[in-house]
Amino acid sequence: MRGRAVRSSTGAFGRSFAVAAVGLAAVIGCDGQPTPTASTASAPSPTASATPTAPSAPAPAAPRGDGQAIEHTVRFGQAHQHGLEVESIFPVEKGKPLELRMAVWTPGSYLVREFSRHVEDFAASTLDGAPLESRKVRKNRWRVETGSADRVVVRYRLYASELAVRTNYVDDELAVLNGAPTFLVGDDLTQPHDVRLELPARWKKSVTSLDPHPDGDEHRYLAKDFDLLVDSPIVVGNPEIFEKKIAGAEHVLANFGGQGVWGGKKSAEDVWKIVEVQTDFWGTVPYPRYVFLNAIVESGGGLEHLYSTLMMTSAFQTRTRKGYVRWLGLVSHEFFHTWNAKRLRPVELGPFDYENEVYTRALWIVEGITSYYDDLLLVRAGITKKKEYLAALSDSIHRVETTPGRNSQPLSRASFDAWIKFYRPDESSVNTSISYYRKGAVVGFLLDAEIRRRSGGKTNLDDVMRAAYEKFSGEKGYTTEQFRALASEVANEPLDELFRHAVDGTGALDYDPALDYFGLRFQEPKKDDDSEEVGWLGADVGSDRLMVRQVIRGMAAHEAGVLPGDEILGIDEHHIAPGQLESRLAAYRPGDEVVLLVARRGQLKKIGVRLGEKPAETHRLEEHPNATFAQKTRLSALLGRRSPR
């Protein structure tokens, strides 16, 4: 994730963002007409007796196959209200209860999301519509008494309002379906799944990496097992589709939305460049067909799958160079996961337990090293320039070095604690944790440079990744120890100390060997001699109201006892209106003592603060003006250029 080994995956994120869209649709009836409300509906006669309406009997269900596959039908009659209806037919053993479950998380996104909270109106029956007794036995499990039936029909509704790559979303124009929050399964995860979508007339296409069903029905697909079903998102609507055969495999880009704004043709051309450089990088194409599902919905994020990726973006991302390069970085990141995550994986990430957390200390390899390569492969593909790549790497280094949590949480533990830390940030996260995406990318750069340096330029991290893929991909997986040993083997020297310090420790990272090897340096901070230094609080404060959102450890506000949740009302007996904090602080100098008036838990409080100095940006990379020809050659080799320039 930024955003499938057989039964494996990893994910987000690094550039992984999600925006929840939880607004309720207007109250509209199934026929598209306004539903009467209390103010418009006719009131019953006061003398009329209220007779409860008996629940309608379940409708008979017509199975499509021979009973070997679980048959799912998804309907969209309530799409205008974020509603889905699912009907599933399960083969069962007569007389044996059927216990069904819904996954609580989805591979690649390491948080228990409790998808079953969106299930409504669960009911079971026989094929001919006779009701069967069912009851919920756990938060995500239901038990059905099957009696003498050999097939059981289960029906339920889903509320689908979260516009994110790991959940479900549906409205009048679009449906995004993920397997984990949509489909139920029994104890046997190896059974095939037959999925049919009943689309409203306004939608013309459903796009997924699932194979079309052999029977040839439109919008009907077949998954060989539950793992593949979970790993194959489906997007429905009216997309613009681009296709190209590269390295012997079919590639599809489906752009949903963005009409008149999104640059479809240009985006496809650059996606194909990414495919070409990455298939060349790995030297193998492990799929016959790959699908880029690009939902242009003013949201963000990406999640990798075995034969596809699901991404979300803004229609205006192609309108600026910076935004467009950011989207291409997302494409590069998720596509790199086709190898590093879905097939080359930590041993813990497969087969999956869909009901419990799965812990690994190697997400920095899965996500961090992928984050290192996503920008690097853009420049190797000729999409971005050297200057843009150095700016992106500088940004990663700067973010790591200005996050106090780097001193508290080792990179390996950041991986392990993803379930409780990364996907559940709070106001103290900046002080207590580090991103395994960001720091993992920086360590990937340092590791690459160290392997090149120690091997005399004969080998590099590219070779480590390809060797790891050859040795550990598929069912096997790798342990942390195996990956580290392989890196040392490729470098032809032990790298144990680098891993202990950079991955398992919290000490300062040493950039000098890498910068010297490539002929780079950090720029001197630019300073206007005529400008005056201004006071610095070291807190993240809102703009609409001056609510303190984060307090950076070691900065002035932290030392003074300012807390997240405080609302700043004034400085030195003078009121501050929203939007004025920065200009007011500009009247003070580092070292000045001020008194903040804050509101905390409904009470006014005065806090004395000695203002600090705003940290300078000291991690902007540039080529050293005195770099040697050898250093320039090494940098060109890293960036994929044949000669220095």
Describe the structure.
The structure is a single chain. With 645 residues, this protein is an alpha+beta fold. It has an eight-stranded mixed beta sheet with strand order 5-4-8-2-1-11-14-13. It has a five-stranded mixed beta sheet with strand order 16-17-18-20-19, covered by helices on one side. Helix 3 packs across helix 4, helix 5 packs across helix 8 (438-454) and helix 9 (461-472) crosses helix 10. The radius of gyration is 28 Å and the shape is globular. The model is unreliable at 3-55 (pLDDT under 50).
Mean pLDDT: 90
Biggest sheet: strand arrangement: 5-4-8-2-1-11-14-13
First CA to last CA: what distance?
34 Å
Radius of gyration: 28 Å
Record the SSE blueprint:
Layout: E1 70-75, E2 83-91, E3 98-101, E4 119-125, E5 131-132, E6 134-138, E7 141-144, E8 151-159, E9 169-170, E10 175-177, E11 193-198, E12 205-208, E13 211-212, E14 220-223, H1 226-230, E15 234-237, E16 240-246, E17 249-256, H2 264-282, E18 289-296, E19 301-304, E20 308-313, H3 321-336, H4 363-380, H5 386-401, H6 411-416, H7 429-432, H8 438-454, H9 461-472, H10 480-491, H11 496-502, H12 512-518, E21 520-522, E22 535-536, E23 539-541, E24 548-551, H13 556-560, E25 567-571, E26 574-575, H14 581-585, E27 593-600, E28 603-610, E29 612-613, E30 621-623, H15 629-639
Parallel strand pairs: 1-11, 17-18, 18-20
Antiparallel strand pairs: 1-2, 2-8, 3-7, 4-5, 4-8, 6-7, 9-10, 10-15, 11-14, 12-15, 13-14, 16-17, 19-20, 21-30, 22-29, 23-24, 25-26, 25-27, 27-28
